Amino acid sequence: MPRSGTIAALGPVMQQAYLPADFDAALEYWTKDMGVGPFFLLENIQLGDMTCMGEPTDAMFSVAIAYWGDMQIELVRPENDAPAHYTGRYAVHDRLHHICQVVDDIAEARRVLEAAGATIVVEGKIGEDGRVIYADPGFGAGGITEFVQLGEGGAELFAMMKDAAVDWDGSDPLRKLG
Q: Which residue ranges form the domains of the chain, and what is each CATH number?
């Protein structure tokens, strides 16, 4: 059990996220070579009240999400070059970009991050009641940790994606949502 008050104690890692230089090639790799899928595509995401390094930003990105057992795999595709967790010094391609922990209380996550001396890279809202923080606990590029407090419907969306992966036969590898 992780020591109380630490970043690890906020919750287990549930996602590995990648920022591929070639999004389509990455999808092909994960679905054909690795057998992970199906991926669900959410396009043109803009977080509410999004800030990057404390400044407002209009960053937009798309993600493709699939499950490999209990681990969520996310591929990120920037849709503009506005400041974000995937631009500038944090833009590492074709390797692990960030991990994600689901938290019950985003304010508590922020307190733990501040106590640890982490840099808050991005913050924003997901829908009406979800919140997210992308932080650099000190590793730098490739070591960002995402903390998400799921809003209404978030857990159900992830459960649907995970269920789709259980007996996936390789058909329809990319499914658009929303």
A: 10-165 (3.10.180.10)
